[in-house]
Design brief:
It is built from 3 helices and 22 strands. By secondary structure, the protein is α+β, with helices and mostly antiparallel strands. Helix 1 packs across helix 2 (220-258). The longest helix has 39 residues, at 220-258. The two termini are 56 Å apart. The relative contact order is 0.11.
Length: 321
């Protein structure tokens, strides 16, 4: 019973937009702003939490480790900032921000690649908006002198860049994929993925912030459980409300069918025989009459047979209210 109440409170808070030990994710920024780096470059990762003080940390997945925190075995940590002065090939992996307060919220993940070669591709770190223009740059570690540059998508050649640049105009979902470049006599860059997100409209909500893979966020199962619990509780509440409304409507209809109580006075007029009329003319018998608030008067009944003839009647009033 206690667990049910806690689940109900959590779901109600979720529906009302309240926060129960959950906070909104913060973005992860990379400096310099790109996803590929030469070995030995200085790189800084920052979890931006200007409006919150609960603290965030950078975590990563690499070929050597899973969900490790910055400052534990790699790089240097200073608050929500993680920095290295010499990045290495084994630092290639998935990076994201995670709250230190125990919340399951996390930022969108960023894939960083470190090249031991002499060519890298400079491309957007985060997903780009549908309809925007995206510029790709092929960069050599050593200066080049207008050497031809070829660009590839998913392993297929897509064009040359005389100045080492290529611009994708008005990108759409069809432009998503793995991109790389090749500089003649210098080598080829690693591949980087470009993702395109749908442009939000006034009639639809923006897409949810993508989360790290399930291997990097063990709390995803807990989030799924909470979501399913909320759906079940909401359905239960809706059914309960409908049942209450149906019961009230049925009761109201039953009362309407019965109608209001109406009290009628039972008045019985008995015309006695002519002999009884002669003996006691204009006699009236009153029985079971409540005298409070009632005025009595003589009742005269005329017929069409005789003109101005007073009939002798016995009038019985009973059960008058």
């Amino acid at each position: 019973m206690k667990e049910t109440q806690q689940s109900l409170l959590l779901c109600l808070s979720f529906l009302l937009g309240c926060r129960i030990n959950r906070v909104l994710p913060v973005p992860l920024t990379v400096s310099p702003s790109r996803s590929q780096f030469f070995r030995g470059e200085s790189v800084t990762l920052i979890c931006e939490d200007e409006n919150r003080s609960d603290g965030w940390t950078v975590r990563r997945n690499t070929s050597r480790e899973t969900r490790t925190e910055c400052g534990d075995k790699w790089w240097r940590k200073n608050g929500s900032t993680c920095k290295t002065s010499s990045i290495r090939e084994h630092d290639t992996g998935l990076y994201w921000c995670e709250s230190m307060s125990g919340s399951s919220s996390s930022s969108s993940s960023i894939q960083l690649s470190v090249s031991g070669g002499s060519v890298i591709l400079q491309s957007p770190v985060l997903p780009v908006m549908e309809g925007d223009d995206v510029t790709l740059s092929c960069r050599a570690k050593n200066p080049t002198h207008n050497l031809p540059v070829a660009f590839y998508k998913d392993g297929s050649f897509i064009g040359d860049g005389p100045s080492g640049h290529m611009t994708l105009l008005h990108v759409s979902s069809s432009d998503e994929g793995l991109y790389k470049c090749n500089i003649s006599r210098h080598g080829e860059s690693p591949s980087s993925r470009i993702s395109v997100k749908e442009k939000p409209t006034t009639t639809s909500c923006p897409p949810p912030t993508p989360s790290p893979p399930s291997s990097s966020s063990p709390s995803s199962q807990s989030d799924l459980y909470i979501s399913l619990s909320c759906v079940i509780v909401v359905i239960f509440l809706l059914v309960l409300v409908l049942l209450v409304l149906l019961v009230k409507r049925r009761r109201h209809k039953t009362k309407a069918d019965k109608g209001d109580d109406v009290t009628y006075s039972d008045v019985q007029i008995t015309q006695l025989h002519q002999q009884r009329a002669k003996e006691s003319p204009s006699s009236a018998i009153y029985s079971d009459v409540r005298t409070d608030g009632i005025s009595y008067g003589e009742i005269n009944i005329r017929t069409n047979r005789t003109r101005d003839v007073r009939l002798d009647t016995n009038i019985i009033y009973s059960s008058l209210r």
